[in-house]
Design a protein that fits this description.
alpha/beta; Rossmann fold; seven-stranded mixed beta sheet; 7 strands; disordered N terminus
Amino acid sequence: MAGIGGPVFDAARRKHLATAFMEGGGQYHSIRPGYPAESLDWLAEAATGPIHDVLDVGAGTGKYTQLLAGRGWSMTAVDPSADMLAELVRDMPQATTLVGTAEHCGLPSSSMDLVVAAQAWHWCDPLAASTELARVLRTGGTLGLVWNQLDVAVPWVHRLARIMHAGDVLKPNFHPEIGPEFASAQAHTTRWVQIMTPADIMELAKSRSYYLKAGEHIRTKVMGNLQWYLFEHLGHGPGTEMELPYMSQTWRTHKL
């Protein structure tokens, strides 16, 4: 299974798949997992000074922004999809939202203490994004890069990820590319579970870029394979609650 860290998407492929998330914010928000609080705790403890202003870039519907909201910070969320940001505002009207990207976020220089990109860095040009986010961060400010991924060390989850074509599974030697504006990054891993039914897992598959950009024949095949695997092979009933294991990997660095 191709995971992040190799082979890497070329620019054209990255842009093509990323367009899958310009719409469908409601479905994405209802089924995608959140993030463990430990991820943000670990980012915040590395701050070189007080945190007041935070940016969630590639924020989507606000899955990581929900963690930021609990800290009482001034929050800004940037995403290329207005549809996704509309979902974020419904839950967190106190957040400032802007349509933009990590490469061009449209914010003033030296305006942020913490910038987070959760489940988003692999859609970015990492060097251009590093330059832009370094511009936005104050000196010594923290950059956090976060990935949720299915814990494929669990055999049944590994097979599930293959059926779903879950490409966002990090290679064991993965290290995100970050520009020279930042110090060497440190990593932290949190293992946790999401309670889901088989129907939820099928909806989760529908929220992934592979499925969203596929033709009807491929979509039908993926759903058929999932039905066989979850109900026949694993023997779950339609409403069975399952523990779906995840790993959240958080990287932190600071602006030099």
